[in-house]
Write a structure and sequence with these properties.
By secondary structure, this protein is mainly α. Helix content is 64%, strand content 6%.
């Protein structure tokens, strides 16, 4: 602090001497003097900010690399959790259907009897059915503007992140970033289409029934998310571990 005060005193002394010399000169007008004084008021705060011992310096430092790397790791872990809980995230079994045998013509009287006693709401006279859903998947991918994957593409190419890449082959990092972008783009597109185009998204199936179709949009979205997670594994391996 003493050093700062001494620097301030020297600065003001220089500025005052300069102003006196300017006013003594017939070639210096009032506008020039005012400009010099304004430069003095700018120089002083800059001096304080660039002094190592100043507390203002710590308050204006940029985001540490650890924060950005942690965001990338969180994004990778988000994809990992989604894949590990895929069926839970994509199958909604909150539907109840009338057993098909009750809908047959020969059981018409029995159906009317069940309906008259409100027994259709009894699990003993209904079956639990399911549909596939894309809502949770799309939320994990950040379409709602929340989560660690939002803005991940910008974080991956921030200068401080690129400077921290420790790969022997820097091109490998950019290849992984490109692969991630392509995989996430496919996942977003396919998961959107899965909400209305997949057969199991609009038609119920019995709980426990094998519903997976390798050609469905939802299954292709899952594979795209797996590719994205693989790319993020590569990216994380090329960055330093957070110190926190």
């Amino acid at each position: 602090m003493m050093m700062i005060m001494m620097l301030i005193a020297v600065l003001f002394s220089i500025q005052i001497d300069s102003v006196n010399s300017w006013t003594a000169s017939t070639s210096m007008d009032r506008r020039c003097i005012t400009k010099r004084l304004m430069e003095s008021t700018i120089t002083l705060p800059l001096l304080l900010l660039t002094t190592p011992s100043s507390p203002l310096l710590a308050a204006t430092t940029t985001t540490p690399i650890d924060d950005d790397v942690q965001k990338i790791i969180d994004g990778r872990d988000t994809l990992k959790v989604l894949l590990e809980n895929w069926e839970r995230a994509t199958v909604d079994c909150t539907y109840a259907d009338v057993p098909r045998e009750l809908l047959e013509q020969k059981n018409k009287d029995l159906l009317l009897e069940k309906a008259s006693t409100f027994a259709l709401f009894d699990k003993s006279t209904s079956i639990e059915t399911c549909k596939t859903t894309n809502k949770v998947v799309r939320n994990y991918l950040g379409v709602n503007g929340k989560g660690p994957l939002v803005g991940i593409n910008k974080i991956l190419i921030k200068p401080n992140v690129l400077d921290a890449v420790n790969a022997d082959d820097p091109d490998a990092y950019f290849t992984a970033v490109e692969s991630l972008g392509q995989a996430l783009s496919r996942a977003l597109s396919l998961s959107y289409t899965a909400g209305s185009a997949d057969f199991t998204s609009v038609n119920n199936f019995a709980k426990g029934e094998d519903y997976v179709n390798d050609n469905s949009n939802l299954e292709q979205a899952r594979r795209a998310i797996q590719d994205a997670k693989t790319a993020m594994d590569t990216i994380v391996s090329m960055l330093p571990s957070p110190t926190n």
